[in-house]
Amino acid sequence: MLAGTDTTAIEEAELPDLSHLDSTQVGHLRDWIRIMTVSTTIASTIVLVLLVALLILGAELLRPQGLLPEGPEVTAVLSVLLGDVWGPPGAWLMIIAAFFAFWSTIVANLDGWTRMFGQASFFIARQAQAAGRWVSMRFYRRIYLLGLMGVLPLIFILIRPEPVTYLAIAGIIEAIHIPVVAFVTLYLNLRTLPAPFRPSLPVTVLTFAVGVFFAAFSIYYIATEIAALA
Fold first, then answer.
1. CA pair distance 75, 171, nearest whole angstrom
2. Would you list the DSSP string of the chain?
3. Is residue 5 scored above 50 in pLDDT?
């Protein structure tokens, strides 16, 4: 914790006043931001490498055999093909990798979506001068975790057990979500952060470019998915 701040969770309190920080504290905060930036860059690079590797794997293994698996069939087909190349260890490697990929996605979504929706709801409630549970992040996170991420999907699965369709719908939501987050983050960084903590010009330009790219991609993706679902 920074000197001069209390131990109240920042998500349930007013944003801290950074105007009183001395040069040493500003330097520490900038170092922390730099670490987070480097970590995010490394993670994004790893994801990019993995995606390219999967594309190459699909082109090398699936296309020669005329296979075009969809949805959950992708893991099963690739595990069989890798089993033919590397034997049983290859098949199990694909299954284990798919499990951890799905598991990490679930955990990230449960944490990220509940945190984002909870923080947004908390902010709106605080602006409306609500009181009690309506200004508790813990309350909103439970609502979104158990309701939006738990009960609601279960109801949909029980009513219409078509996971591939729901994956397509989730992809549409994600396609809309990415450019919105990019532009909102850019806006908040430039309008709310003190000058010493604002992103550099290259980072700002790259963030804007990412938002534009994914906005255009989302239009294309949504159009293709709607056509496929029709």
1. 18
2. --TT--SS-GGGSPPPP-TT--HHHHHHHHHHHHHHHHHHHHHHHHHHHHHHHHHHHIIIIIGGGT----TTHHHHHHHHHHHHHH-HHHHHHHHHHHHHHHHHHHHHHHHHHHHHHHHHHHHHHHHTT--GGGG-HHHHHHIIIIIIIIIHHHHHHHH---HHHHHHHHHHHHHHHHHHHHHHHHHHHHHHS-GGGSPPHHHHHHHHHHHHHHHHHHHHHHHHHHHHH-
3. no
Residues 6+ apart with CB under 8 A from 4: 20
pLDDT: which is higher, 133 or 23: 23
Q: 194 and 19 in contact (C-beta within 8 Å)? A: yes
Using CA atoms, how far apart are residues 48 and 21, in angstroms rounded to an integer? 38
Of 57, 60, 87, the closest CA to residue 75 belongs to 57
- Grade residue 69 by pLDDT with cuts at 50, 70 and 90: low
Is residue 163 within 8 A of residue 157, CB to CB? The reply is: yes
Amino acid 3: pLDDT: 44
Amino acid, single-letter form, for residue 164: V
Angstrom distance (rounded) from CA 73 to CA 69: 5
pTM (2 d.p.) = 0.60
Query: Residue 16 pLDDT more than 80?
Result: no
pLDDT level of residue 9 (50, 70, 90 thresholds): very low
CA distance 179 to 215: 5
